[in-house]
Write a structure and sequence with these properties.
215 residues, alpha/beta, Rossmann fold, two-stranded antiparallel ribbon, 30% helix, globular
Length: 215
């Protein structure tokens, strides 16, 4: 199942516009904060798909019966570009455990060719849990698939939510083909093209460089 949040009329699209805008991108603080705000909206939307239970809440005047999440998801992200996006999820799922994966493009002799390397993983046990993997860009889908498979070392989740601010059609097709069926994809918008260097067009550029400086 794929959810494209940008298709709805909401303030989400204003934050997405600002993240794409090359003039606004010159302010690193602002782009990080906008990615964080987008993460908060993703968290709210994904929260609707979680399992809920009833809980009694004691107030100063009595007891209220509330519907609350049965459990919090584990929040996973890919360093470094995913950090501000991840913070938005953490702002809403503030008691959740987090997982961090280091993945990067290692370019080969041909400047347009690269392989994705996963070098570092820090994660709680994931067996039977709900997991959200958040990364701003879903370009080819290769990094997301490798990160997903690396996380399986910590146990097989019950369900995985893949969240990306922007995705390519190619990346979505790759995820649907190469990841298990217990996956839900959440994206802000789907763009049509990839450059020879596998950057999304029109996209927004290199999310990590925009947030933290060029490598």
């Amino acid at each position: 199942m794929i959810h494209e949040l940008g298709k709805q009329n909401s303030i989400f699209n204003e934050f997405l516009r600002q993240v794409r805008d090359e003039e606004i991108q010159k302010d690193r603080l602002r782009i990080r904060r906008n990615m964080e705000r987008l993460g908060e909206i993703f968290a709210y939307e994904i929260s609707k798909a979680l399992d809920y239970k009833t809980a009694d809440v004691t107030t100063s005047l009595g007891t209220a019966v509330m519907r609350v999440p049965e459990r919090l998801p584990v929040l996973a992200t890919i360093m470094r570009a995913g950090l501000p996006f991840h913070q938005g999820f953490l702002n809403y799922f503030d008691g959740a455990d987090s997982a961090f994966v280091s993945a990067y493009r290692r370019h080969l002799k041909n400047v347009d060719e690269f392989e994705v390397k996963v070098e570092y993983l820090s994660s709680p046990g994931l067996k039977g849990k709900e997991v959200i993997i958040a990364d701003p860009m879903l370009a080819t889908g290769t990094s997301m698939a490798l990160v997903h498979n690396a996380l399986l070392e910590k146990g097989k989740p019950e369900h995985v939510h893949v969240a990306a601010i922007l995705a390519s059609k190619e990346g979505i097709d790759y995820i649907k083909k190469n990841l298990p069926k217990n996956i839900t994809i959440w994206v802000g918008a789907v763009d049509d093209e990839l450059t020879a260097q596998s950057y999304i067009v029109p996209g927004l550029g290199d999310a990590g460089d925009l947030c933290y400086g060029s490598k």
